[in-house]
Specification:
Blueprint lengths: L1 E5 L3 E6 L3 E8 L2 E5 L7 H11 L3 E5 L5 H4 L2 H8 L3 E5 H7 L26 E3 L4 E2 L2 E5 L8 E5 L4 E5 L2 E2 L5 E2 L9 H4 L4 H12 L5 E4 L5 E2 L2 H10 L1
Parallel strand pairs: 4-5, 5-6, 6-7, 11-14
Antiparallel strand pairs: 1-2, 2-3, 3-4, 8-9, 9-10, 10-11, 12-13, 14-15
């Protein structure tokens, strides 16, 4: 995995050039945001060892195979690690991809089932270390983002993409079309993108593509195209 540091607290881990997960420094160790696709566990553990801190908690943005694929393997290696998942997404992670009656119809594809049971589920507003969980449905029904209250970094998961050009989930970028093809509901994703922009993040970290500093203008452009 390629590693890059952004500010004092964020370490981006990139596999196969386009698949990101993140380590966030906290006073009690590291929070891992997403676990990457299957086969990523050893590389993530090596990155944590290089940072000199233990992974004390795992928080997922959503249950797609490239974000939660190594969850069970990591938990097996780490043992007593806290796992935090969105309350809606936890059902998908357990294998139930049916939509609720009040949810718009849309694509439900690309999910992975894992056996690990969350330590707690999130509905938005909770603090995960220094990160505030933010509801951001659209790419998936229970998608979450995480906002670092210390420095304004927004770990947006797949609510936005940078690979192939900045875009809101559901907007097709021909150089990287997979985010759009895997998005559940484009209209809901746009609403979430607007709410994330209102947080006025200083840094945007996404699941696919580079980390963007001072992202507000680019986020507004992407929302306008959604």
């Amino acid at each position: 995995m390629r590693q890059s540091e952004h500010g004092s607290n964020l370490i981006r881990l990139t596999r196969l050039w386009v698949f990101n997960c993140y380590l966030v420094r906290e006073h009690d160790g590291l929070t891992l945001i997403d676990t990457g696709m299957r086969g990523s566990a050893e590389q993530i553990l090596a990155a944590a060892a290089a940072a000199g801190l233990p992974i004390t908690r795992i928080a997922l943005t959503h249950a797609h195979f490239d974000h939660a694929g190594s969850l069970d393997a990591l938990v097996a290696r780490l043992g007593d690690v806290e796992l935090l998942v969105g309350a809606r997404e936890a059902r998908i992670l357990a294998g139930d991809t049916s939509l609720q009656e009040d949810e718009p119809r849309g694509r439900m594809r690309g999910f992975v089932t894992q056996q690990t049971t969350p330590s707690a589920t999130l509905t938005g507003g909770e603090l995960v270390g220094s990160l505030q969980a933010v509801e951001a449905p659209g790419h998936t029904p229970g998608h979450l983002a995480y906002f670092d209250t210390r420095d304004g970094t927004l770990i947006a998961g797949d609510a936005f993409q940078m690979q192939g050009g900045i875009a809101v989930a559901g907007v097709l970028r021909p150089m990287f079309p997979f985010m759009a093809l895997g998005t559940w509901n484009k209209a809901v994703a746009r609403e979430s993108a607007i709410r994330l922009r209102m947080l006025e993040p200083t840094r945007l970290a996404v699941g696919h593509g580079e980390v963007l500093e001072r992202p507000l203008e680019a986020m507004e452009l992407a929302i306008g195209q959604a």
